[in-house]
Design a protein that fits this description.
Strand content of chain A: 15-25%
Radius of gyration of chain A: 26 Å
Number of domains of chain A: 2
Number of domains of chain B: 2
CATH architecture of the largest domain in chain B: 2-Layer Sandwich
CATH superfamily of the largest domain in chain A: Thiamin diphosphate (ThDP)-binding fold, Pyr/PP domains
CATH architecture of the largest domain in chain A: 3-Layer(aba) Sandwich
Strand content of chain B: 15-25%
CATH topology of the largest domain in chain B: Enolase-like, domain 1
Number of helices of chain A: 14
CATH topology of the largest domain in chain A: Rossmann fold
Strand order of the largest sheet of chain A: 10-9-11-12-16-15-17-18-19
CATH class of the largest domain in chain A: Alpha Beta
Distance between the termini of chain A: 66 Å
CATH class of the largest domain in chain B: Alpha Beta
Number of strands of chain B: 8
Helix content of chain B: 10-25%
Largest interface: A-B, 25 and 27 residues
Number of strands of chain A: 19
CATH superfamily of the largest domain in chain B: FAD/NAD-linked reductase, C-terminal dimerisation domain
Radius of gyration of chain B: 19 Å
Oligomer: heterodimer
Structural class of chain A: alpha/beta
Shape of chain A: elongated
Shape of chain B: globular
Bound molecules: flavin-adenine dinucleotide, iron/sulfur cluster
Order of helices and strands of chain B: EEEHEEEEEHHH
Helix content of chain A: 25-40%
């Protein structure tokens, strides 16, 4: 399997051309504040928008192939194209080879210079990114997950029949890879079993023990199974992957009961805001105003326009907090590092008691957006605060990005 | 000072006729735009090859390193039947050199075809010199002494036949910054 690398991402819409990134780079790399000597170059104007010239650390780098002195090499561990001053003969052929202006003459010293992602710096991360006051630059480090997770076994069979662009399939494959083979999976009616994970025609879609409880009794059955395994002395993770309908509507009483008894279960809810597997009916997690097949939008009848769902979504994760679970968190596949952190904590918490993970999961079919837009929609949902990512432990209460979300004010009488 | 390259073709002589007609050659080995010679399963690339020029249909020996590596890559992909193979766009002069404490960059053709326009500017104090040749809105060649710009970016502007009409004055004033801007907009 190929490797993923860290990268510097640029959001032109956020850049105002202040040049702080260039100053930071020049300071670190040349000891001057001469922006012309920065390895990252912001060009353009307020009216036309700002643009970026920066080494792309290409996978098949032209600068490396044209260099006659073997002074440039691709480091396949870091992904960085490294320049070796001792070998360089200053021919500048690399500046001809590169079509991105990623390597250029630093006139201040008479040699070429290029971005090395500051790998060798004490921070080991680019100096330009934290210098940007507008978050136009981001240091993307999710490749770590790709590299690590790629080597773990995918515990679902290939060829599950999820819809094109399905976020749920992505989520469940990641989850089971992480939770590992010593797991018993319960998955009530919904998209997860619907795409074949529980099997059909006498075969199974999952490489670990999997069962298909009723919508109503998932948590109760899983609690019993976990207790039996404990009784015979076997350590397993009891994992449920349920839809929002199965968890927040008919499945709620057994979920609430198991949480209240603090059963040692990891309960994951894939919230795609409705019963998408059976034809997109509303659930209690469908948000206000949303179209579903049972909450239409349009002309309506009897002179009343149909305005989508007329009730607010039930905030299931917050209700789970009120069960004082071992761990409760919300997550999104658009924020994989965060999701993995929370998954790790939930796995640990499920060894002590009830862990609940609520993942917001856009549905290409039910929400009717193009199949290549899932990550974009998931990211926008978080960026706009339509959904919020937070976590709860008994010690810290609710926190988001490490900061408390609850401010209590007591009034003196 | 000397320029140019003369591949040794002697070993191919005497094979140009008959049913076993050998590898066609002129000053160099004649190749197609996938670097194939006139003989099946024989490819040539680099200084020994005479391939299509970007500005002329006549085949030329373009003896520079970037072309040698590009031709080598194309030949390799063609041999392997790689479906990602893109045809050779044609060779173009490209160079950068230091001399007498100055730095020069040249990209593209110095020929001035009919209807083309040559723009030059020279600043005596800084010794900065720029010459650009345009045909319509398109750049044909650009030359600088002590005037820095990214040769790789300029080369793409020429190869992609980018229309520079709208940005011409800004481009001539600062080819490096405007070239980078266009790169980021057009092929980032
Ligand atoms: C002095 C000089 C300066 C240059 N400066 C520049 C510059 O600034 N910029 C630029 O772009 N280009 C420059 N070039 C040109 C550039 O070096 C060449 O275009 C490029 O190296 C060509 O690569 P090639 O692989 O086609 O040929 P070569 O690099 O010549 O490789 C041919 C190889 O074939 C081997 N060979 C020959 N005959 C046989 C045989 N019968 N059997 C087996 N092996 C054989 C040779 O030993 C050699 O290793 C310069 C060239 C010279 C000579
Ligand atoms: S300037 Fe240095 S790094 Fe660039 S091609 Fe020439 S020898 Fe290689």
């Amino acid at each position: 399997m190929g490797r993923g690398y860290n990268t510097i991402a640029f959001d032109a819409a956020k850049c105002d051309g202040c040049g702080d990134c260039m100053t930071a780079c020049a300071t670190v790399k040349t000891g001057t504040d001469d922006k012309a000597r920065s390895r990252i170059q912001i060009v353009g104007s307020e009216s036309d928008g700002f643009e970026l010239a920066l080494c792309r650390q290409c996978g098949d780098p032209k600068c490396v192939t044209v260099c006659p002195a073997a002074a440039l090499t691709k480091n396949y561990d870091t992904g960085v194209i490294e320049w070796n001053a001792a070998k360089c003969v200053d021919c500048l052929l690399c500046t001809i080879g590169c079509t991105y202006a990623g390597i250029a003459l630093d006139a201040g010293v008479g040699h070429v210079a290029k971005c090395d992602m500051c790998y060798a710096s004490p921070a080991g991360a680019p100096a330009c990114v934290p210098a940007c006051p507008h978050d136009a630059l981001t240091y993307i480090t999710t490749s770590r997950i790709y590299n690590e997770v790629g080597d773990w076994e995918d515990l679902f069979a290939p060829g599950l029949a999820g819809c094109q662009g399905c976020n749920t399939e992505l989520l469940m494959r990641h989850t089971l890879r992480r939770v590992g083979p010593d797991t018993v999976l319960a998955t009530p009616p919904g998209c997860v079993p619907g795409m074949g994970s529980v099997g059909f025609n006498g075969t199974t879609g999952t490489k670990i023990p999997v069962f298909h409880p009723l919508l109503t009794n998932t948590a109760a059955m899983l609690a019993g199974i976990k207790r039996q395994y404990k009784r015979v002395g076997r350590e397993i993770t009891a994992l449920a992957i349920a839809g929002d309908g199965g968890a927040s509507d008919v499945g709620f009483q057994s979920l609430s009961g198991a949480a209240e008894r603090n059963e040692q279960i990891l309960f994951m809810v894939v919230d795609n805001e409705g019963y998408m597997n059976t034809g997109m009916q509303r659930s209690s997690c469908t948000p206000y105003g949303a179209w579903t097949s049972t909450t239409p939008v349009g002309k309506g009848s009897g002179g009343m326009p149909a305005q989508g769902k007329t009730q607010d979504a039930k905030n299931l994760p917050l209700i789970m907090v009120n069960h004082r679970c071992e761990y409760v968190a919300t997550a999104s596949t658009a924020y994989m590092e965060d999701l993995y952190d929370k998954l790790d904590k939930a796995i640990q918490a499920s060894k002590r008691g009830f862990a609940y993970l609520h993942v917001y999961s856009p549905c290409t079919t039910g929400w009717r957006f193009p199949t290549d837009q899932n990550m974009e929609v998931a990211r926008k949902a978080v960026e706009t605060n339509f959904v919020m990512l937070w976590e709860y432990t008994r010690a810290t209460a609710c926190t988001s990005r490490g900061r408390s979300m609850i401010r209590c004010r007591s009034r003196s009488i | 000072m000397a320029t140019g390259i003369k591949p040794n073709m002697a070993y191919l002589e005497g094979q140009v006729s008959g049913p076993d007609k050998g590898v066609e050659h002129d000053r160099g080995i004649l190749v197609s735009d996938t670097m194939q010679t006139s003989v099946a399963n024989v490819w040539a690339a680099g200084d020994c090859a005479q391939a299509k020029g970007f500005f002329t249909e006549a085949r030329v020996i373009n003896s520079i390193l970037p072309d040698a590596t590009e031709q080598g890559r194309i030949a390799g992909m063609a041999m392997a039947g790689d479906p990602g193979l893109k045809k050779y766009p044609g060779g173009m002069s490209l160079n950068t050199y230091h001399f007498f404490g100055r730095h020069a960059i040249s990209v593209g053709s110095s020929a001035v075809p009919e209807g083309a326009e040559v723009v030059t500017r020279f600043d005596e104090a800084s010794g900065r010199y720029l010459k650009a040749i345009f045909l319509g809105g398109r750049l044909l060649g650009i030359y600088g002494v002590n005037e820095f710009f990214d040769a790789g970016v300029m080369c793409q502007l020429i190869l992609r036949r980018v229309d520079l009409s709208a940005v011409r004055e800004r481009f001539l004033a600062n080819p490096m910054a405007v070239g980078r801007e266009l790169m980021s907009k057009l092929w980032r």
